[in-house]
Known about the structure:
Blueprint: H1 16-23, E1 32-34, H2 42-50, E2 54-56, H3 71-74, H4 78-87, H5 91-95, H6 101-117
Parallel strand pairs: 1-2
Amino acid sequence: MTFLVTAGQQADVSHAEALLKAAAPEGTKVEVVIADKGYDSKAVVAAVEAMGAEAVIPSIKTRKEQRVIDAERYKDRNLVERFWGQAKQFRRVATRYEKTARNFLAFVHLAAIMILLR
């Protein structure tokens, strides 16, 4: 897993390429990238395809050219949603008590470890 902490008022898509680089460093083989509609942009899809991976990112309703995605693979995104549901059971993660991004990210990592150990 890779976590990237950003400001809450910033759009997800503006940090997509940095997240892709952090999640898949050079030399790592990636088969598929699954994301929600918040990551729908031609630049993100092009970056995913440049990695040699399939982009399973649904198009927003207002896009003229609707992209066809693998619906069965998109269902795997539910794993991420369930993870965040479990992570928010940890009070420090849910309420974001930490003043610095570094400390908050440390508690997100700690929550992820606790979830994986269950």
